[in-house]
Design goal:
- Pfam families: TauE.
- The protein is mainly alpha-helical.
- The protein folds into two domains: 67 residues, no CATH class; 49 residues.
- It is 78% helix and 0% strand.
- Helix 1 runs antiparallel to helix 2, helix 1 packs across helix 3 and helix 2 packs antiparallel against helix 3.
Length: 126
C-alpha cells in the first residue's frame, strides 16, 4: 500500500511540476513529513525527480512559445553560478537550520501567492 501511495505522490507532483506549480517542493514535503526520509536524502531524490520531469515540461513550454530565448541565456548563467555558491554554502551549514530556513521560505511563498492580487488578462479596458 505504501508503494501505491508513493507512486501516486510522485505522479501527482510530476504533473503539477509540468504546469509550473512547484511539484518538487510538494515532493520534498511528502518525503520528509509522510515517508520519513531525512532532508538530505529527500533533496537528492528531488534533484533526480527534477531531471526526469524537466525535459517534458521544457519541451511543452517551448512548443507553446512560452520560453524567451534571450532570457534563457542570462538565467542559465546566473543559475549555474548561484547553484554552485548555494551548494558550497549548504555543505557548511547545519541541516536543522536549512530545514527551518526552507520551511520559512515555503511559508513566505505560500502566503505571497494567497494574498497577492493579480491582474486578470482581458480586463484592462473595462
Amino acid at each position: 500500500m505504501m508503494t501505491v501511495i508513493a507512486v501516486a505522490a510522485g505522479l501527482l507532483t510530476g504533473i503539477l511540476s509540468g504546469f509550473g506549480i512547484g511539484g518538487g517542493s510538494l515532493l520534498l514535503l511528502y518525503l520528509t513529513l509522510f515517508a520519513g526520509v531525512d532532508q538530505y536524502q529527500a533533496g537528492g531524490i528531488n534533484l533526480l525527480y527534477f531531471i526526469a520531469c524537466a525535459p517534458a515540461a521544457l519541451y511543452s513550454h517551448i512548443k507553446n512559445g512560452l520560453v524567451q530565448k534571450d532570457a534563457v541565456k542570462w538565467c542559465v548563467a546566473a543559475g549555474v553560478l548561484t547553484s554552485i555558491a548555494a551548494a558550497l554554502a549548504a555543505a557548511r551549514m547545519d541541516t536543522g537550520w536549512l530545514r527551518r530556513a526552507f520551511g520559512v521560505f515555503l511559508l513566505y511563498i505560500g502566503a505571497k501567492e494567497l494574498f497577492t492580487k493579480r491582474k486578470q488578462s482581458g480586463t484592462e479596458g473595462k
